[in-house]
Design brief:
The protein is mainly beta. It has two domains: 116 residues, Proliferating Cell Nuclear Antigen (Box), CATH 3.70.10.10; 115 residues, Proliferating Cell Nuclear Antigen (Box). The chain is built from four helices and 18 strands. The strands form three sheets. Strands 6-2-3-4-18-17-16-10-14 form a nine-stranded antiparallel sheet. A five-stranded antiparallel sheet has the order 5-1-7-8-9, with helices on one face. Strands 13-12-11-15 form a four-stranded antiparallel sheet. Helix 1 packs antiparallel against helix 2. The longest helix is centred in the first third of the chain and has 11 residues. The radius of gyration is 19 Å and the shape is elongated. This protein is an auxiliary protein of DNA polymerase delta and is involved in the control of eukaryotic DNA replication by increasing the polymerase's processivity during elongation of the leading strand.
């Protein structure tokens, strides 16, 4: 038996909204420590990792390790039936062929139940190797989303250049070029507004605008985002999922 009750059900909706344009279907691994997912996008260009800790659910029960193969778009459609303040429970019996989703209004006057068929999905377990990154940037997530959206109007790729106390995002195309520079700023009143740069080595790396815009769909999950960069290593974009876990896009 697997059961995970999430009081902040809207968090799960935001997680699905963040990945549904990248990932078509994925295996969700349920264990005593929590709920996790890793999947490649359909073009096999990017990887998505999600970890949701058991402590973030109340209650959380997983009698034995279980894998739930789910179509992400269909799951997202069902989650749209939940109000933003609903409590969401995900439940599956051992060896079940379906997963049950229960949505409860805060006053429990309304309870909705949905069932979704499980899939058999072939997937291999991949991981992010432990890496000493050249630069790690923490910045407001809305700022990153705005920069990626704006520069995608200029060109098909965005170059991120990181030096001692600043980071520059630039793009060029047929209509011209554009760049946005952010200086390190850790003296702001709100921690969520700060730009911090942990630099071991200056770097200058280029990424596809299209995928950066896909990644920043996770912006509603967190006020801040962390970028980890190193030459010849995929960019890692990480968002916190409330207090219960994280999503990494590679």
């Amino acid at each position: 038996m697997f059961e995970a009750r999430l009081v902040q059900g809207s968090l799960f909706k935001k997680v699905l909204d963040a990945i549904k344009d990248l990932v078509n279907e994925a295996n969700w691994d349920c264990s005593a420590t929590g709920l996790s997912m890793q999947a490649m996008d359909s073009a096999h260009v990017s990887l998505c990792f999600i970890d949701l800790n058991a402590e973030g659910f109340d209650p959380y029960r997983c009698d034995r390790n279980l894998t739930l193969g789910l179509n992400i778009n269909n799951l997202s459609k069902i989650m749209k039936c939940a109000a933003n303040d609903d409590v969401v429970t995900i439940r599956a019996e051992d060896n079940a062929d379906a997963v049950n989703l229960i949505f409860e209004s805060p006053n429990q006057e309304k309870v909705s139940e949905y069932s979704m068929m499980l899939m058999n999905i072939d997937s291999e377990h991949l991981g992010i190797p432990e890496t000493e990154y050249s630069a790690t940037i923490k910045m407001p997530s809305a700022e990153l989303q705005r920069i990626c959206r704006d520069l995608s109007q200029i060109g098909d790729s965005v170059t991120i250049t990181c030096v001692k106390d600043s980071v520059r995002f630039s793009s060029s195309g047929e209509l011209g070029s554009g760049n946005v520079s952010l200086r390190e700023n850790t003296s702001v009143d709100k921690e969520d507004d700060e730009v911090s740069i942990d630099l071991h080595e200056a770097c200058n790396l280029t990424f596809a605008s299209r995928y950066l815009n896909f990644f920043t769909k996770a912006t509603p999950l967190s006020n801040t985002v962390k970028l980890s960069l190193k030459s010849d290593v995929p960019l890692v974009v990480e968002y916190k999922v409330g207090d219960i876990g994280s999503i990494k896009l590679v």
